[in-house]
Write a structure and sequence with these properties.
This protein is mostly beta strands and 131 residues long. It has one domain. It contains 1 helix and 10 strands. A 4-stranded antiparallel sheet has the order 2-1-5-6, with no helix packed on it. A 4-stranded antiparallel sheet has the order 3-10-7-4, with no helix packed on it. Strand 8 and strand 9 form a beta hairpin. The chain is flat.
Length: 131
Amino acid sequence: MFAVIKAGGKQYRVVEDQVLKVEGVEGEPGTIVQIGEVIMLGGDKPEIGKPTISGASVAVEIVEHGRGRKVIAFKKRRRKNSRRKRGHRQDFVLIRISEILTGGAKPSKGPKPKPEPKAKPAKTEAEDDAA
């Protein structure tokens, strides 16, 4: 099952456990937020909203906040000795789609636990002598 949601003025096609960068989602990292603007639900019986589907929402986990790469806006007027250079970095929120909800249901899944770092194997005395 997939859904088409609207977040930050843009539309995204999402499925469960997908990670994507969006704008305009508020919340702290590690929390579950519901996005209520679901434009379409797809699957066995597709459903299209007019303009949105009532009772449908998408539960997302906020992974982190960040900023995109710098975009340079350079303007030059030739033979006028006029130049302007500006840089811009767009803010974004990295989200993970936890579940697609219909019929006004509440999110049942919590945030996904972070994977624990793998422990490095301890060096033996023979390896230390060789190095």
